[in-house]
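quick one, 414 residues, struct below
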Amino acid sequence: MPQRRQPTARQARLGAELLKVREAAGLNGREAAALLCTGAARLSQIESGVGGVSEDTVRRLAANYSCTDVELIGALVAMATDRSRGWWEEYRGKLPNSFLDLAELEHHCTYRLDVEFLHVPGLFQTEDHARAVFTYRVPELPDDDLEWRVRHRMARKVIIERPAPVPYEAVIHEAALRIRVGDRAATRAQLVRILELSEADHITVRVIPFDLDGFAGATNAMMYVGGVVPKLDAAVRDAPQGAGFIDSEAQLGAFRTLFRKWRLCLSILSDRVTSFTDWRRNCEARRDRPRQLAEVVLLRQRRRQQLCRGSEPRHSNRDTRLESPGSGPDLSPDRPVHGLHRQSQSRHRLRRRRLVVVDGHAHWRRRGSRPPQSARKSHASSVRPTGPAAEWNAAWCRGPQNGWWHGRSQRSTV
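---
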């Protein structure tokens, strides 16, 4: 058979599986070529996917390698004898080969499982959503390349829309549904599309909400494609630049373990991991909640700024208030003073200032500042001031409020 200039991912996978069987038998390339009655170069071409292989050659190699896995041999024979040309051949020469290999892999798969946290799965994307994804690519694509990629992504949906669709399960985080990749209309159309597809019997959509406890796997987004036999499974990393394929047995085993953990998590937390329909219903019930939360945050910020400026809270309706007085006002308890509310004022503001009574007069001082000379003399001689200011000061300390100042001794400095 003639050599291929660039084998497809399916052809390279056939050669890689034959290489794994040979290594499991403990034979090197020269020994295996001798059993096949060919040269080592020819065997190397087969195992790299560059050279074609017939059904008889595959069965002879399996017999020489003492392979008894009938299902695996049948799957390899089907891969070797497949000469069909799918719809993806239309895009050959217009898109990178990884796009075509992904479409071919999906065409021959037996099931699909997607886990996405920040992006909507490619099979669910609408045309506007896919165009917005590819437009964001750096460097920017030419208009023709952009349209070819969008058309290819739309054509990939055939595996879930054909008469015999592939079973498809998608686990999507709420963040992927909240992010507006396009404008508001495109985002709404995307959610409606997912809702319509979730009603199909062969499609299962699960949404992980933001408030789910015990969630630590946000970095493990991937796509798992089931083969005819488990040994032919593949993991795919899908990206706007192309797809990356993983077929190593050790890595596939790690991915299977990861998905078993996901299924266990979904079964244990099934009351919190909801379907897409339930998630949409909950969003409609609380669609005004983000706006309300934003208003509360803004209100708290404005109130904090008012307190820092010393202005009175608007909701305060108490009659007994305290203002920063000047020197010599009447501070008797019967006279209401305006400004600082004794209960609603923040604690840090009260701590910044203190009331000093000197010779019957009240003075407001910042904490850390030195009191007047007369006040220091009064404290040194333990002489308590007299007059209406001292009486009001004592009444305030004995007041019914349970603030931070309650219980302090009746000193001249508060």
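Residues 114 and 121 are 7 Å apart (CA to CA).
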